[in-house]
Design brief:
Strand content: 15-25%
Number of helices: 14
Largest sheet: 8 strands, mixed
Structural class: alpha/beta
Shape: globular
Number of strands: 11
Radius of gyration: 22 Å
Order of helices and strands: HHEHEHEHEHEHHHEEHEHEHHEHE
Length: 387
């Protein structure tokens, strides 16, 4: 199918992309709107498209509006929410506007339309936000470009690091992966310059991403690491399979640990077995699928158990609940995964949890692994290596 046809018809991989954005936004916005120190939330759909695909399915702009309206309808009072819908093609934003008007629904948030060049819009936002220091305002950007040429790494870094925005970026990684090596050849055409510039901005010449034989998933991992901007922010990826050996990926980057947790929650909600990404359903039913699922779950918990044991044995002092909470998320697991392992450690007698204010043992199974107790640590863990 041609790129133009794919833009007009929402295929399985496009649906998976919008579903992830919708799931993340529902989780993150719900939390932001319940916080007393937030009084404004702005959501930017930088390439909003036409709103409804030719096969009748809704795109990111309409799904985001539905999420915002449903959350605000539940609340008596909430911070102000504005949905900014931009597309360089006026017929696209007019199509979205008409779709919204045709629903005849009460819109609980403000909606702003624009037809700016995407890169110019993002540069303008950086200029507006860089020195504002308004920590009561949260800005969320969904960037789903027509390719990747409109993505300037310097602007992306400024949005995250200088402006404290949450960014969800969609990239055609299989296409980029296939052309990265070619783009550095002496005889590479001018059409390869954008991918070369993109790679050069993140990776030195000796980086493994330049090596032949690199797998597409490792390529995604390297990009995810690059989007942490030297581990100064949180980054995660969610791969999306379009067809055999052809992947896209969503990349999240932010300085907000709370937003990062909601991305990890979305990953595990949509991929219960691995928390990694979307795969097309198999053409034939696997008779051993339940067994494979059980084995993958065992492998996943074993991996986290090793990580937690390493954290405890390498620590020079007692570890707080805040340390464990952040550590688990950074390895893209959830607190609920860690609680199962910590409970087993507690039962075996090698782990104890104490309240910081009284020094008393915490109730069995109470580990205080959530954002509330991350900002105000309340427990320490004592680990003993088995004799």
């Amino acid at each position: 199918m041609s790129r133009k046809a794919a833009q007009n018809t929402q295929l399985a991989h496009s649906l998976a992309k919008v579903q992830f954005y919708e799931t993340f936004l529902n989780k993150y916005l719900r939390m932001l709107l319940s916080m007393s120190n937030i009084d404004e939330v702005n959501i930017y759909d930088v390439f909003c498209g036409r709103g409804v695909y030719e096969n009748g399915t809704e795109g990111s702009s309409l799904r985001a509006l539905s999420i915002v309206n449903s959350i605000l309808a539940e609340k008596k009072s909430a911070p102000h929410v504005t949905l900014y819908l931009n597309d360089i093609k006026r017929e696209h934003t007019e199509s979205v506007r008409n779709c919204i008007n045709s629903k005849n629904e009460i819109t609980a948030c403000s909606i702003r339309f624009s037809n700016s060049d995407a890169l110019e819009l993002m540069q303008s936002l950086v200029h507006q936000w860089r020195f504002s220091h308004n920590y009561k305002k949260r800005n969320i950007l969904f960037i789903d470009p027509y390719g990747y040429k409109a993505i300037d790494p310097k602007v992306l870094r400024s949005l995250v690091m200088d402006c404290h925005a949450d960014v969800l970026l969609f990239l055609p990684v299989s296409f980029m992966y296939r052309f990265t090596e070619y783009s550095f050849h002496e005889d590479a055409s001018n059409g390869a310059k954008p991918i070369r510039a993109f790679i050069e901005s993140f990776f030195p010449n000796e980086h493994p991403i330049h090596q032949a034989g690199l797998g597409v998933h490792q390529y995604i991992n390297y990009l995810t690491e690059a989007f942490s901007f030297g581990y100064q922010c949180y980054s995660a990826s969610y791969h999306i399979e379009r067809n055999d050996h052809n992947y896209f990926s969503l990349f999240y980057m932010s300085q907000s640990l709370m937003g990062f947790e909601k991305v990890i929650e979305a990953k595990w909600e949509l991929d219960e077995q691995n928390g990694c990404g979307f795969k097309l359903p198999p053409k034939m039913r696997d008779l051993f699928e339940e067994q494979w699922k059980y084995e993958r779950q065992k492998e996943m918990y074993h991996k986290l158990q090793i990580l937690l044991t390493g954290l405890f044995t390498s620590a020079c002092s007692r570890i707080t609940n805040a340390t464990i909470y952040k550590f688990v998320l950074q390895h893209e697991f959830l607190p609920r995964h860690a609680k199962l392992i910590l409970s087993e450690m507690q039962k075996s007698g090698c782990l104890e949890c104490y309240k910081m204010d009284t020094g008393e043992q915490a109730p069995k199974g109470s580990f205080y692994l959530n954002y509330r107790y991350y900002s105000k640590p309340c427990a320490v863990f004592a680990y003993r290596v088995a004799a």
